[in-house]
From TrEMBL:
It is an enzyme of class 1 (oxidoreductase). It comes from the Bacteria. InterPro entries: 6-PGluconate_DH-like_C_sf, NAD(P)-bd_dom_sf, P5C_Rdtase_cat_N, P5CR-like_CS, P5CR_dimer, Pyrroline-COOH_reductase. The keyword Cytoplasm applies. This is Pyrroline-5-carboxylate reductase. It catalyses: L-proline + NAD(+) = (S)-1-pyrroline-5-carboxylate + NADH + 2 H(+); L-proline + NADP(+) = (S)-1-pyrroline-5-carboxylate + NADPH + 2 H(+). Belongs to the pyrroline-5-carboxylate reductase family. Catalyzes the reduction of 1-pyrroline-5-carboxylate (PCA) to L-proline. Residues 6-103 form the Pyrroline-5-carboxylate reductase catalytic N-terminal domain. Residues 166-268 form the Pyrroline-5-carboxylate reductase dimerisation domain. Keywords: Amino-acid biosynthesis, Cytoplasm, NADP, Oxidoreductase, Proline biosynthesis. Its main location: cytoplasm.
Length: 271
């Protein structure tokens, strides 16, 4: 398959647009190689035009012409979508089908596509739109190394990519796909703390965001445990340990961890 296979993005909402923007704007994927389809194309017309990609209502035509099909509809819409595509023979040429639907298993996808359709389950996140994404891939049974490499090549320009066994996909969804929303709330809270202590809001938001970026980058770039990095900031009898103890009084660790657990449980029931 060539470096930029003909790609159909089915469902051009939040994630379809985020992935498409990352591909076209940030990684130079040729816009003329991408055709999107959405139930209500008028909603995303301006975005599609800005990216230079084709967008219509016709998912069948987009899939028939594609070498790779990226399914970006909600889990509840997948069954009808796949039934329609299968009935129309749109998958008969066996394109590589990559689904990003939360909670939707490879077994479900297999049962609702023509026999032998190569399937990959992917879980990206919204930071893919600015090439800071995290995507986890789980290949279906019949997927070759070359096909998995094609799926990987689609997401690699958008951030980090990891292959994992499918059994981890719901936890991945709860942590790295829902996670940006949790971090935005935490960032907002950090900024509120700054505002409470007299910082102008815009300054507080910038400090909170750059600090979070720096701290996360230290974990990724040094490979060191977050606890060791935390200890280095924590001078005996200093201000950081005082702040940490206040956070522990509010049970910050279990509150955040339970949030991931809850999101994982709900993700598992979405398919
Ligand atoms: N949002 C995230 O951060 C995130 C992260 C990782 C994975 N995901 C997964 O990504 C998928 C999409 O999520 P999203 O947040 O992007 O949802 P979204 O914004 O609702 O986008 C889905 C789009 O698909 C359209 N659609 C529905 N059925 C269709 C069909 N048969 N043919 C063509 N288009 C169709 C919808 O149109 P209507 O609105 O008119 O129905 C909507 O515009 C979900 O399965 C979700 O689990 C989301």
């Amino acid at each position: 398959m060539n470096q930029h296979p003909k790609l159909a993005i089915i469902g051009f909402g939040t994630m379809g647009q985020a992935i498409c923007a990352g591909l076209v704007e940030a990684s130079g994927y040729p816009a003329q190689q991408i055709q999107a389809a959405d139930c209500h194309p008028a909603h995303a017309k301006v975005r599609a035009e800005a990216l230079g990609i084709g967008l219509s209502k016709d998912a069948e035509a987009a899939v028939k012409a594609a070498e790779v099909v990226l399914l970006c509809v909600k889990p509840k819409d997948l069954k009808d979508l796949l039934a329609g595509l299968t009935a129309a023979g749109a998958l008969d040429h066996k394109p590589l089908v990559v689904s990003i639907a939360a909670g939707t298993t490879l077994a479900f996808l297999d049962a609702h596509t023509p026999e032998g359709t190569p399937l990959v389950r992917a879980m990206p996140n919204t930071p893919c739109s600015i090439r800071k994404g995290m995507t986890v891939l789980a290949p279906g049974k019949g997927v070759s190394e070359a096909q998995l490499a094609t799926a990987r090549a689609l997401f690699e320009p958008l951030g980090r990519v990891m292959d994992l066994d499918e059994k981890h996909m719901d936890a991945v969804t709860g942590l790295s796909a829902s996670g940006p929303a949790f971090v935005f709330v935490i960032l907002e809270s950090l900024a509120e703390g700054g505002v409470q202590c007299g910082l102008p809001r815009a300054v507080a938001v910038e400090l909170a965001a750059q600090m979070t970026l720096g701290a996360a980058s230290m974990v990724l770039e040094t490979g060191r445990h977050p606890a060791a990095l935390k200890d280095e900031v924590t001078t005996p009898a200093g201000c950081t340990i005082a702040g940490l103890l206040a956070l522990e009084d509010g049970r910050i660790r279990s509150v955040v961890a339970r949030g991931i657990e809850r999101a994982t449980q709900v993700a598992a029931g979405l398919g």
